[in-house]
Structures are given as C-alpha cells and as structure tokens.
Amino acid sequence: MSVLALDAGTTGVTALIVSADAQIVARGYSEFPQHFPTEGWVEHEPREIWEAALVAVRAALDALGPDGDQPTAVGITNQRETAVLWDRETLGSPRRAIVWQDRRTAGLCDQLREDGHEPRVAALTGLRLDSYFTATKLAWIALNEPHVWASVTSGRTAVGTVDSYLVARMTRGLHHVTDASNASRTLLYDIHAGAWSQELCDIFHVPIDALPEVVPSYGVIGRTDPSTFLGLDLPIAGIAGDQQAALFGQACYEVGTSKCTYGTGSFVLVNTGERPVASSTGLLTTVAWQHPDGRLEYALEGSVFVTGAAIQWLRDGLEIIASASETEALAQSVPDSGGVVFVPALTGLGAPDWDPHARGTILGISRGTTRAHIVRATLEAIAWEVRDVVDLMVREGGLELAVLSVDGGASANGFLCQLQADALQAPVARAAQLETTGLGAAFLAGLATGVWASQEEIARTVKHDAQFEPGPRDDRAHRRWRVAVERSKSWAVL
Ligand SMILES: Nc1ncnc2c1ncn2[C@@H]1O[C@H](COP(=O)(O)OP(=O)(O)O)[C@@H](O)[C@H]1O
Ligand SMILES: O=P(O)(O)OC[C@H](O)CO
C-alpha cells in the first residue's frame, strides 16, 4: 500500500508517493508561472496550477514504475488563503486567483478596521484584518469586478481555496469542499463554532452558498475521476493547508509541540490541542486539523511571508545567484554580512510586525559589499524573522522551546539551520524527510484508509537526521536588524 500526496505550494506542485513505512518512494514536481500585474499584486492562473499538478503526478507515477507499490488513496495539501474562482460546469476560471502574498487589499483592510470590524473578526476567526486572508480578496473582486462577482452571486461560479479547486478538478466538478484547516484561513469561518459565519460573510460581501462544504481533514470525501485525473480512480481521503499538514507530518500531536517550515515563507506552528489560544500581539489562532468525529484541534501560528522567496528573488530578480543551493557556500565564503542588513519585506510584513505597506530594505552597503554579503544577509534575515516570531510564541503562547523542529525546501541549507540555532540560542533539529507538507497530507489520507492505524504509529516513523547546536549570538546584528525592520515599514504609503 502507498499514498499519493499532492502538495500544491505557492511556486509549484509536488507529488509524492509515500510507502506504508512512511518513506517517500517517488516524487514529481512542476513549477507554475507567477503573475505580478502591478506592484504588490500576485496572481496565479488556476488552470496552470491544475496542469502543474497533472505533470507532477505523472512524473511521480513514472518514477514509481508499473511494478512499484501503486497508491491506494490521495491526500491534498496546498498554499493557503489564495482565493480561487471557477465555473461549476466548465471548471474554467473567470479571473486569475489572488494569491496570499497579494497586498492589493491593504487599503480595504484599513477601511474595515476604521469601521470597527477588527475586534469581532479577530474574535470569531483567530486571525486579523490583513490582506493575507481570502475574504479580503473576495471582497476586492466583489467591489471592483462586478461582472465577475455577478456570476458568483448567481451561483454559476464557485469560490474556494486551492484545495477546493483541485478537488473540483479531480472529481470533474462533483465535489465542492474544503477542510477545516483551510477554512480557518479565510476570515469567513468561525473557529469556535466550526462553521462558516453569516456575520463574516456579510462583512466581506460573500454569499455563503458560494462557499465549499467544510469537511474533516481526513476521511474519504469522494473519488478522483479517472477520465480527468490520469486514469486514477482513488479515494480523496485527506485535505489540509500546507502548514497544518507539516505540523501533522512532523507528528506534532502533543500540546506544546511545534515546527517551522521554510518554503516560500516560513511558518512556525505550535499545537495547542482542543483549546484555541487567542493572541493579542500578532500570532494567529488557527485550526490545526479536524478529526472525522468533528473534533477540532488548534494551533498558534507565526507567519513570516518571505523567506525562500527572498532567495528566489536573488536568483530571478537580482540575478546574483544561479541556484538556491549555491547560497550555502556563498554565505560561508565571508565571515559575516559586512554590516549589510536585508529586510525581505517584498510582500509586506507578517508576524510579528504586520505591515502590508512595508517593502524590502537593504541597509549598510559599502564599497566592499559583494554578492556574498547580500546572500549572507538574506539567510541571516530568515533566521532573525523566525527568531522574532518564536520569541513572541515563548512570551505569549507559553511555548517552551527545548528544540525547534524544522523542515521545508530551504531547510536543506545547513548553514541557515546553524544561523537559526545561533539566533534562537536553542538547538534546531531537521526532519529526515524535508517535504513534511506532502508527508502530512499522505499521513492524513493514509490514516483515513487504513495505511496507518493511528497517529502514534505515524509518530514512530518521523525522524530527525541532523541537529544544529547553538553557537554565539550576535546581538548587535539583531539590533541592527530591528532598526532596518522599522525603516521598511509603511514604505508603500510614504
Ligand atoms: N539550499 C537552499 N537554500 C536556501 N533556500 C532554498 C534552498 N533550496 C530551496 N530553497 C528555497 O526554498 C523554497 C522552496 O521550498 P518548498 O518547500 O518547495 O516551498 P513552497 O512549498 O513554498 O513552494 C524556494 O523559495 C527556494 O528559494
Ligand atoms: O507555499 P508555502 O509552502 O510557503 O505555503 C504558503 C502558506 O500556506 C501561506 O499561508
């Protein structure tokens, strides 16, 4: 027995085939285009996500080969918050998806805040009024593209996040669902009642009937249609937002256990069990997963928007590196960043500063500055960003950080892990299999279909293969970092 996991991330789709002994036995990957129509806007073409998913699954199946242990279920995990629209009949989209990184709704959020909506919205959702979240993007479409929105209110066009869209595609439009972990990122879901909220839908102009049915994070919700999904007829048995999936994939099942995933952004989540812990200083309260019996478990989250994406920008924007993996040796080729501090607020700032109007800042450049210094400053920035969020979790969430478990694409960079241990003054343990988002989706689907009998059984398979012990911390560098963060704030409205 094996499980297929589809991990639809921000920059590409990964397909994993995970064996019953929890090993990744085959994988496929396909990147899809990012669209930047204007400053601060980020869009995805839904069809391109779907096509990337098909390419990735095909590649994974080819890698597995006909004699490999064929998957018996599929789990889905995804970039969260991104707002997707599609026609219920044709599955075509009337407009591109507005991505979680898109900051076009910053002004709309300011207005809603001025109108006094924030306390109630935060109390119901555990989130904040920020352009990060789905409902603000839907409200923007409702207010700015009435012709598109008319098809939503008439019932022709469905609304959802990337998981819902993929399920619709995989089932030829038969199912319109999302799981509670994804729903909890929309600003439309009451995390205490475990249901869509009419009150929130009214605030954001969203017809509640346009939203998907909310299902538990594991349990069979339907089957893939072989005529549209590469001949595969599989139960869809797990769905979770990628950061919650990573929490599941790292087997953080006990209250107080935590992980940090380094991908496009970096997200620290700590399990708070069946108790939603409210935050007043910038952490998010979110659904970790919902059990098939309806029980909700929660997490406290620190969301850092741009980490691996800053590395991509060094590659594709500045063109000072050829590949992300080069950064490790380049950063170590200099003893320090030479006084350079880079705040990669390329799409505003998330936790702990929350400023959608912030933009990237590079300070401290001198005649002696080289690309190695800028690369090193970028890795240091990632470590400082995560440290600032963990500090908040320790102070506010009561997190006792004995060790930080890390995973995700950028955690392949051992030097980054070392910088992280130094910044935190705590050991960093790296998961043996870095793709914990996909693994988490596989575990959820496998739990629902008998591949694994229990969470305890899954937990026994999760291993860490490297531990980075903290060295000295450069407090002066952190002070400079905080000064640079302050300077980057409000830039887009100055
Ligand atoms: N060796 C590396 N050092 C630093 N960053 C890396 C490295 N390898 C990959 N990355 C970054 O990690 C990200 C990819 O990780 P992944 O977990 O696949 O992200 P996502 O799911 O967000 O698409 C990219 O942003 C890339 O720049
Ligand atoms: O694309 P990732 O893996 O960095 O994840 C994005 C998050 O889900 C955004 O909230």
Give the CA-based shape.
globular
* CATH top level assignment of the domain at 2-243: Alpha Beta
Count of separate DSSP helical elements? 16
Tell me which ligands are bound: adenosine-5'-diphosphate, SN-glycerol-3-phosphate
Give the termini distance in whole angstroms. Answer: 58 Å
* Proportion of beta-strand residues: 15-25%
CATH topology of the domain at 2-243: Nucleotidyltransferase, domain 5
Average pLDDT over all residues: 95
What is the CATH homology-level superfamily of the domain at 2-243? Answer: ATPase, nucleotide binding domain
Low-confidence segments, given as residue ranges, are none
Radius of gyration: 21 Å
Characterize the largest beta sheet: strand count, sense, and whether it forms a barrel.
7 strands, mixed
> Would you count the extended β strands for me?
23
How much helicity do the residues have?
A: 25-40%
Spatial strand arrangement across the major sheet: 17-18-16-15-21-22-23
What oligomeric arrangement do these chains adopt? single chain
How would you classify the helix and strand content by structural class?
A: alpha+beta
Pfam families: FGGY_C (PF02782), FGGY_N (PF00370)
Family: Belongs to the FGGY kinase family.
Organism: Longivirga aurantiaca
InterPro entries: ATPase_NBD, Carb_kinase_FGGY, Carb_kinase_FGGY_CS, FGGY_C, FGGY_N, Glycerol_kin
